[in-house]
Amino acid sequence: MQDNNHEYEQEYEYDHEYDAISADRLCEASEAVLLAMATLNADGLAHDLKPGEVLGSQYQPACLKEFTREEIVEAAAFLRRLGVLDDA
After folding, report:
1. For 10-53, how does the pLDDT look when each residue is reduced to its tens digit (9 = 90+)?
2. How many domains is the chain built from?
3. In this structure, what DSSP letter does residue 67 have?
């Protein structure tokens, strides 16, 4: 099985040096990512954008506004490890 998480993390300059978010915050961010992807899917954009790419863009769902880029990237990586979010 190919590990695309490393490639994805490099693409977004994911920094493992910062303090890890709490489990509760990771769950909240993961829920927001799932809701955001459902919203983007309803708009026909989910397959074209990764969760970290929509932050600060015109396509950013409101559910992501309270999270940092690092939290969203970490949540997306978590969801990919669980097999809930596609690697694409």
Report:
1. 444 545 555 688 999 999 999 999 999 998 888 777 666 778 88
2. 1
3. S
